[in-house]
Amino acid sequence: MSSHNFEADTGKILDIVIHSLYSNKEIFLRELVSNASDAIDKLRYLSVSDKKLSDLTDAFAVTITADKRAKTLTISDNGIGMDEDEVIASLGTIARSGTKSFLEALGSQKDKKAKSKDSDNASDVSLIGQFGVGFYSAFMVADKVEVLTRKAGTNKAYLWSSDGRTGYDIEAAEKAEHGTMITLHMKKDATEFLEQVRIGHVIKTYADHISYPVNFLDGDDSTQLNSGSALWTRPKSDITDEDYESFFADMGAGYGKPLVTLHNVSEGTVSFTNLLCIPQMRPYDLFDPARKPKVKLYINRVYITDDCDALIPAWLRFVRGIVDTADIDLNVSRELLQHNKTLDRIGKAVVRRILSELKKMHDKKPEDYDALWSQFGVVLKEGMYEDADNREKLLAISRFHSSEMDGLTGLSDYVSRMKEGQDEIYYLSADTITSAEMSPHLEGFKARGIEVLYFTDPVDEFWLPLVPEFEGKSFASITKGGVDIDKFEASDDAKTDDEAPDVDKLIAAMKEALGSSVADIRISKTLTDSPACLVADEGGMDIQMQRLMKAHDPNFQDQPRILEVNPKHALVQGLNKLVTTGTDGELVNDAAFMMFEQSLILEGKPPQDVAAFSQRMTRLMTRGLKL
User: Fold this and answer.
1) Of 64, 199, 597, 620, which has the highest C-beta tally within 10 A?
2) Residue 393 lies inside a defined structural domain of this protein
3) What is the tens place of the pLDDT at every residue in 164-175?
4) Longest CA span, the chain
5) What is the pLDDT of residues 191-243, one digit of tens each?
6) Are residues 619 and 487 in the same domain?
7) Contact assessment for residue 178 and residue 136, using Cβ atoms and an 8 Å cutoff
8) Considering the entire predicted model, what is its pTM?
9) Is 274 in contact with 264 (CB distance < 8 Å)?
10) Distances in Å between the alpha carbon of 605 and those of 239, 273, 351, 478, 513?
11) Which DSSP helix (H) or strand (E) runs through 217?
């Protein structure tokens, strides 16, 4: 037996690995099982060109055994194994990876074998242990680790052992079969990992799709813990709808069938596979403030994380599934992904693929797409605000309710229906479709047959300022001042021969009564049936934005708005006569406040002074009963 000290500073690095590198202890099992899978992959590849190894490729498997009495957990494989030099190189030095060295050696041989019939087998090698320190995560749960290994094609075996602190010992040993057996002497606080149920849960979570069986051995009984087959690696022609539905359920995406399934393999400078699903109904956590994406990242069928913002953006968090690649660089731990160009390219490609599929559905299956939009449109709109690169694509597939259409309509369709001479896309911000349909602001537009889109999602107030136009048409809020529709002729039913009376004196009296409650009072160009409504100044806030500001800051003070009056309405004309004759100023004052507060109520806001509102209402009803 020979004893060795770890290299300089290795003790400090080990301390980081054991106590800080990984966020939860169960990761150790993922690391050891994935290393075992690598070892099998190496042997499978080398056996193609080495006849001495060709007889050693049957019944590949990873086996886990727990001994509760001895408090040991053993993970063994029948892969390539290691000789003495490789044991020292791979296990005696932190952050050195035998797998990485293997890949480098493999790359140098590719050119030599380019013309060989066996050269294609290089693409079959699935190597995931390019991280150097994964093995040492075992010391998070073990006081002592023993590695018994025998390299395939040799008769010599070696036993490596260490407590993870002082160094390690290596001695010659006996091992009947090639491969590696890792025995962990578990700490007192890690005995949960000796339970089959706990082990099975970890394997199901992190290594379910490793292509070799991961078996739990209990005496003579063997139970396979993983599916042993990654669905996304199989040809699509071999996958049934039931298989996809089962995957959809396993991802926790929902019940029943997915509304959309995207299964693609991308090969080139960056290679990856995606299997993604869009559910029919909103996931329960769709509006969780964390806005975390739920697409899982795999490295050659080994689960890495489902918390990777660079892989898929928050505005696609309703998409569930996996992305599997061998081309992402990892920094020390598989949990600490480098934000590098490769990861960015994969993420952008995935987003393009999803948007392309949505556009296809939008164009060819509008009913299905409208069902999708009704569930996830509000989240996709977040992308119109956050993602400048994809804003135009999202605008092209966005859907809205409108004053002239049943159901949903797109912006391009709206533009195609615009009246001659119409230069703007008119919209109305409101809390709900119902409140939008009841808005007095629509009256003049309906009278002229001008279509208005309803923007009822809070996020609309954020993306709109970033979109100056769509297909050459700018957006215009009908609840802001400056909207002029006089150039459009009203329909015959809405036409009237009555000329608007001069109401300048009434407006002056109302300004004196309402004071600072309003920013201004002026004649409306859009009202036909209602006596009055409130509008924002051309550069001011819509009522919807004021609500958002109030929700964010309870101390936010609403900006005074402009009260527009309809001079052709009977109420306005009656009040105008009272002002002109100089009679009943109290009634004029009460009516002015009632019109103002009625306009507030129609926008979903309470009167400024409920008690005063009630008193005015009582006085006006009393006068009405006396008439």
Assistant:
1) 64
2) no
3) 887 899 999 999
4) 118
5) 999 999 999 999 988 888 888 999 999 988 999 999 888 889 888 998 988 88
6) yes
7) no
8) 0.76
9) yes
10) 55, 51, 40, 18, 20
11) strand 214-218
